[in-house]
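Structure tokens please, single chain.
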Amino acid sequence: MKHINVALFVVHKGCPHMCSFCNQRSISGSQKEITPDEVRSAAETARKSLTAGEAAGGEIAFFGGSFTMIERGYMISLLEAAYEYVKKGVFKGIRISTRPDGISEEICSILKKYGVTAVELGAQSLDDRVLELNERGHTAQDVENAVALLKSFGFETGLQMMTGLYGSEDSDSLETARRIVAMKPDTVRIYPTVVIKGTRLYELMLTGEFIPKGIDETVELCAKIIPAFENAGIKIIRVGLHSGGGVEGDYAGGAYHPALRELCEGRIYYDIALGKLREKDCGSYVLAVNKKEISKMTGQKKQNLIKLQSLGYTCTVEGRDDMPKYEIAVIHKG
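Here you go.
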């Protein structure tokens, strides 16, 4: 089955707050609101790419703004346009993203009526102090209440968290991950903080009040968070901001890298390998991993192998078909 997803950007007009890291309101004035006809046009283009009788199996996704907090009539008009193609079997459902305080029983009923199957919430943190410092306008309890309500309506539920926010420490990010695991969402996205021009974080960075975490610090932290989600069976949809969309042009600081997830998973492999090698004498070893994971074990620009060699372990990497992800067999070369 061919899976085609249509992602549509909703102008940031519904959100009543201006979070420290967000510049959407400042750029929304130059952006045109998507219309129901444009939703139909995008869906129709996807439909035409399918062979006769084939169902896409994908989703129409509304991202960008706090979808359930835009003007009600406008929201429903977009949902109606998308739902036409869900009913035709071109898409399996509709995905939307919103704020925890943008969820209510009434909203859930509307979303259900128009074929929404997945809802992602921007939780960002589950530490009330960090939420307040970053002007989120909701509490950790709001997140937990919203997740419970979404689950009661049968929606696939996703949570988005951020690391490295203003006032945040690694400890509260790890606690946020632990609490997310306890809520058992279906999916998560991990967005390390990126400082964008035109935001409050940018102003705080210029004055020195906020020092954003760099790539190395972020990779070290996310290498602890990722396994917590994976071990709990929670699908990680994304780690780090997508490239494009003006991020590179407006980037001012923080942990932006187009292959951030690869770096984090490479760090996980390094930590596992080092733990096993520490139990052995220095020397030459083969590290056997799943053949699809060779590049992660090797590390970007072979950094994992270079670091291991500096500690006295000269290693090569071998791929195998039968190795689970993150499993490493250490074989002494003799």
